[in-house]
Amino acid sequence: MSGFMAAVYDRVMRRSERFCLDQWRADLLRAVTDDVVEIGPGTGANLPHYPTAVGRLVLLEPDAAMRKRLRARCDALGLTRVEIVPLPIEQLPDGFGTFDAVVVTLVLCSVPDLAEALRSVFGVLRPGGRLFFLEHVAATGNPRRLAWQRGLEPLWQRVAGNCHLTRQTEAAIIGAGFVIERIERDSIRKAPPFVRPSIRGIARKPAVPDDEGPAD
């Protein structure tokens, strides 16, 4: 399934990328600077949109088939200083470093444990660092579509790389200790209706140590 997903991913996403996602990525990432880690970059759709203000760029991609395509895209774009690390964020070793920004786009839906992943994101960000996110989410404002998502989710997880349709990602980001600076809610055009609800924006790790992290 891993190799199949890597082979078809760009083709499946092509229309949505053309009609909205590519522009959303560009708008979101133009504010990224300094040392950046991207979680689950897949085939590298974000790579053309990173500004020159980015210093260190680390790409965490645990899937071997995706890494192969990611490296090919890096080479095609002439990105020779990018670090590709074959680990999920939850397995980063102590002392790996802290970052000014973490980027997640269409990946938090498929991490095994959303809360754990966001705790790890919080941990690798310096105080005042920012999380840049673009994710499809539960249709909380549309009960009929939400019921549809819930019914389809078990099958969808099996055929779409553990992708969850009903994650409350905004609430999870806040629960991990972040402060939402900017958020937009929109429909991913040309996607199947059950994956169209989306959020994108920027969340900040508080700069004051006493305010860091979720309450016990």
CATH topology: Rossmann fold
- Structural class assignment: alpha/beta
**What is the 3D form?**
globular
Roughly what percent helix?
25-40%
**Unreliable segments of 5+ consecutive residues:** none
Rg of Cα set: 17 Å
Number of helical segments with 4 or more residues: 5
Query: Can you tell me the CATH architecture?
Result: 3-Layer(aba) Sandwich
Strand element count: 7
Average pLDDT number: 94
> Superfamily at the CATH H level?
Vaccinia Virus protein VP39
Strand order in space, largest sheet: 3-2-1-4-5-7-6
Number of domains: 1
- Quaternary organization: single chain
Largest sheet: 7 strands, mixed
CATH class: Alpha Beta
Written as H for each helix and E for each strand, in order along the chain, the element string is HEEHEEHEHHEE
Beta-strand share of residues: 15-25%
Q: How far apart lie the N and C ends?
A: 39 Å
Describe the structure.
The protein has 216 residues and is of the alpha/beta class. It contains five helices and seven strands; from the N terminus they run H-E-E-H-E-E-H-E-H-H-E-E. Strands 3-2-1-4-5-7-6 form a seven-stranded mixed beta sheet, with helices on both faces. The radius of gyration is 17 Å and the shape is globular. The mean pLDDT is 94.
Keywords:
216 residues; single chain; Rossmann fold; 5 helices
Write the layout of secondary structure elements.
Elements: H1 2-29, E1 34-39, E2 54-60, H2 64-77, E3 83-85, E4 99-105, H3 114-124, E5 125-136, H4 143-159, H5 169-175, E6 179-187, E7 197-204
Parallel strand pairs: 1-2, 1-4, 2-3, 4-5
Antiparallel strand pairs: 5-7, 6-7
